[in-house]
Input
Amino acid sequence: MTRIDMLYVHDIGRVTHAELHDHHWGALTSGGGFRALQELKAAGDIRGFGLGVNKWEVIRDALEETDLDCCMLAGRYTLLDRGAETFFPLAQRRNVALAIGGVYNSGILAAPKNGRKIFNYADAAPEIVMKVEALRDVCDDYDVPLAAAAIGFPMRHPAVTCVVIGANTPAQVRQNAEWFNTELPQAIWADIDEALNKAQTEVRRTTC
Output
């Protein structure tokens, strides 16, 4: 390769770096990190740059310092976590393409019904498991895999350019491709929203 298409600054942010955040953020901003990336782009050595992070707030803060071309956001726009949606209008105004990763929320949306339930890198709380089972029931009604809905959900938003799906083996790559190509009826999304709302109401009732 004679150039890099896209360069991501990986896992910048206070959640990752804690007390060292100000140091690393300063290196990117006043320290010249973003300026160096702009120079690489201007010289044609890279086609663009952005961030690869788990928190959309970091992308928002970076846009106050520089222009970004594409950012990978993991786990924050999924069937179970839609927190990033409030950020999408800003990304669209600033022409930031979004690649959505972590669509399975670390595995729970792709795990077998009786498999281990991992949500955001830890054992899933009972209320998360309850929501997943509600989602699975809807998908079963439509005879589609829950994982296929997990892939298809973020692709419905115009701010999203693509999804990035992890795999450890060739078999997982083939399975992901099959799920990606699964046809999802439009009506499923309203039923998913309704099921999640009912599950959330039940969570509130059982925790009061």
User: Anything to note?
Assistant: The chain has a mean pLDDT of 93. The radius of gyration is 19 Å. The CA atoms of residues 45 and 104 lie 34 Å apart. Residues 187-207 form the longest helix (21 residues).
